[in-house]
């Protein structure tokens, strides 16, 4: 079952933006050894918006290959074009990918009915389980709990990553869906409380740099051990906050490179490497969270 600490994995690149598959394999091993529950490949943090279709599919399938059945792999398969998202969904079916992570269509700002029809069409295009992904801060569209409830009735729509950071959304959605519908936080700052209030896990950016700590915190939170979970969460709070000083995944890729997890912080345009004025802010957050060995 997909629960607990799930990493929204970066896609390692060299300084020219070419994908570094050797480093990707090393990151998969790092997360398996650190106790991460599952990997999201080519989500927002994996630069799905800057990868072409061939690279997008290759990164997802290589992640499955490197995982070799030892950890579930979820693949970003959303798009602002329904037909493109359907293409990804079909390509990922029967590939070993556990589920697709399906973001609300960005830029074109569909209605609630448009969102329902979009996700319904994707779900019906293949047998791949689908996790909805609501992140209005990036997409300019907010999928409301009533729409989520309608979609939850479709057989292979199995959960949602709710990234508003609004804990009321958890309560609202939970009241409208079946008990087995998975509820994931997409906001590191509120992820611990999200689980303590009945959520199933967190799809995390922080997990890239603190997987062992996130895994332990999530286990404690899911067990209802509030005090111990909050101690770890407070230790990580500087990282939760400061990995967003510029657009994700710019700061977290820089942090991964600073910790020696990847060789460079390379991104693809229009993303750029973290501005020097933020280096000390992110470095101090990593230090405060005791992540340097």
From TrEMBL:
Keywords, comma-separated and alphabetical: Amino-acid biosynthesis, Cytoplasm, Diaminopimelate biosynthesis, Lyase, Lysine biosynthesis, Schiff base
EC number: 4.3.3.7
Residues engaged in binding pyruvate: 45, 203
Enzyme class: lyase
CDD domains: DHDPS (cd00950)
Keyword Ribonucleoprotein attached: no
Source taxon at top rank: Bacteria
Active site residues of this protein: 133 (proton donor/acceptor), 161 (schiff-base intermediate with substrate)
Pathway: Amino-acid biosynthesis; L-lysine biosynthesis via DAP pathway; (S)-tetrahydrodipicolinate from L-aspartate: step 3/4
Subcellular location: Cytoplasm
InterPro entries linked to this entry: Aldolase_TIM (IPR013785), DapA (IPR005263), DapA-like (IPR002220), Schiff_base-form_aldolases_AS (IPR020625)
SUPFAM superfamilies membership: Aldolase
Catalytic activity, as annotated: L-aspartate 4-semialdehyde + pyruvate = (2S,4S)-4-hydroxy-2,3,4,5-tetrahydrodipicolinate + H2O + H(+)
Site residues, Part of a proton relay during catalysis: 44, 107
Job of this protein: Catalyzes the condensation of (S)-aspartate-beta-semialdehyde [(S)-ASA] and pyruvate to 4-hydroxy-tetrahydrodipicolinate (HTPA).
Protein family according to the UniProt entry: Belongs to the DapA family.
Complex formation: Homotetramer; dimer of dimers.
Family annotation (HAMAP family): DapA
Name of the protein in its database record: 4-hydroxy-tetrahydrodipicolinate synthase
UniProt lineage: Bacteria, Pseudomonadati, Pseudomonadota, Gammaproteobacteria, Alteromonadales
């Amino acid at each position: 079952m997909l629960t607990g600490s799930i990493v929204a994995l970066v896609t390692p690149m060299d300084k020219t933006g070419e994908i570094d598959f050797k480093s990707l394999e090393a990151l998969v091993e790092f997360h398996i050894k650190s106790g991460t529950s599952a990997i999201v490949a080519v989500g927002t943090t994996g630069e799905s918006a800057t990868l072409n279709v061939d690279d997008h599919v290759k990164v997802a399938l290589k992640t499955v290959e490197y995982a070799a059945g030892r950890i579930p792999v979820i693949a970003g398969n959303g798009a602002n074009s329904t037909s493109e998202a359907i293409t990804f969904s079909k390509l990922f079916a029967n590939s070993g990918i556990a589920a697709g992570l399906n973001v609300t269509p960005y830029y074109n700002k569909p209605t609630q009915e448009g969102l329902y029809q979009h996700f319904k069409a994707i779900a019906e295009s293949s047998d791949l389980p689908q996790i909805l992904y609501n992140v209005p801060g990036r997409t300019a569209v907010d999928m409301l709990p009533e729409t989520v409830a309608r979609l939850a009735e479709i057989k292979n729509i199995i959960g949602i990553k709710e990234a508003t950071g609004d804990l009321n959304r958890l309560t609202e959605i939970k009241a409208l869906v079946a008990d087995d519908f998975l509820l994931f936080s997409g906001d590191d700052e509120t992820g611990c409380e999200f689980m303590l209030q009945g959520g199933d896990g967190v799809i995390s950016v922080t997990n890239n740099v603190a997987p062992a700590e996130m895994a332990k915190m999530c286990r404690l939170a899911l067990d209802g051990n509030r005090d111990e979970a909050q101690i770890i969460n407070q230790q990580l709070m500087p990282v939760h906050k400061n990995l967003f000083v510029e657009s994700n995944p710019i700061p977290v890729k820089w942090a991964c490179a600073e910790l020696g997890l990847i060789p460079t912080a390379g991104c693809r345009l229009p993303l750029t490497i973290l501005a020097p004025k933020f280096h000390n802010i992110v470095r101090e957050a990593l230090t405060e969270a005791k992540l340097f060995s």
